[in-house]
Design goal:
By secondary structure, the chain is α/β, with parallel strands linked by helices. It contains 12 helices and 9 strands.
Length: 270
């Protein structure tokens, strides 16, 4: 069997009801499934996910595999299991309830083929409480990425760039943000496609949504696991969060404070 150009890893826990819709999304891609492998990683589902997996097999991809195991509960660990089995030159992890516009895969692979970028990401449509909202993302900027997650949860990665990271790490609840910073530290260029080609569903079951409850410590751990990406002041803030120091306030949700913010805070409390 020839090697696939693209590996799509789908982590799943009790989301079998979404498989038919996602399969239709993949079927509509302008990129043929004959160069794609699909790896469904089932995290100990108790619904009919394994039966619903037939929808992906019907797409007749180059390769289709189901990996199943005992429930872990952390999407990053589940994705890593699939990525470890993936054979493609390019890699994509996507949730079962998300959708791709017909040109998503072709656009991302075309950009990666024409560059040395480590990953490609697009603008997207966020759907929360059945209300869609288009999200226009900025071009990659390391200072912006150090303060907030400027990438969507889904991006197409070049395998050789991904291999220079530790993949998804289970420590922080913001697993995708941590991974993008690992790409940046590895010197991998980012490509932004300024067109909404991806639909992301937001609801209480999202792991990232649950992570909001642990925002301060999740952000602090990102800093401490990627210290070279952050200023000394920000590293001091992160250590102080874990030390329970009262001055180390959490800052707004999803925002990591920069050098100036931390220094101003220390002046006020000093």
């Amino acid at each position: 069997m020839k090697e696939p150009r693209l590996s799509i890893v789908i982590p799943n826990y009790n989301y079998g009801r979404h498989f038919e819709r996602l399969a239709r999304s993949l079927y509509s891609q302008t990129l043929g499934m004959d160069i794609v492998e699909i790896i469904l990683v089932d995290d100990g589902s108790t619904d009919d996910s394994l039966r619903q997996a037939a929808h992906f097999e019907e797409l007749r991809p180059l390769r289709f595999e189901v990996l199943s195991g005992i429930h872990d509960g952390r999407p990053g660990n589940v994705r890593n299991r699939g990525l470890a089995e993936a054979r493609g030159k390019f890699l994509l992890c996507m949730d079962p309830d998300d959708l791709l516009a017909p040109g998503y895969l072709a656009a991302c692979l075309a950009e990666l083929d024409d560059s040395d970028a480590g990953l490609a990401y697009t603008d997207f449509v966020m759907v929360e409480e059945n209300t869609p909202r288009e999200v226009a993302l900025p071009d990659y900027d390391p200072q912006l990425l150090a303060s907030q997650n400027i990438l969507p949860p889904t991006a197409v990665m070049r395998r050789s760039a991904w291999e220079r990271t530790e993949s998804y790490r289970a420590g922080t609840d913001y697993e995708d943000w941590d991974l993008w910073i690992q790409f940046a530290l590895a010197g991998s260029p980012f490509i932004h496609i300024a067109t909404p080609l991806y639909v992301h569903m937001v609801h209480g079951g999202n792991f990232s949504f649950q992570a909001r409850k642990n925002d301060a410590r999740a952000k602090a751990l990102i800093v401490l696991e990627n210290e070279k990406f952050f200023s000394a002041a920000t590293r001091h803030w992160a250590r102080s969060v874990f030390g329970g120091e009262s001055w180390a306030i959490p800052f707004p949700r999803g925002i990591i404070p920069g050098k100036q913010h931390v220094e101003k805070l220390l002046e006020k409390t000093g």
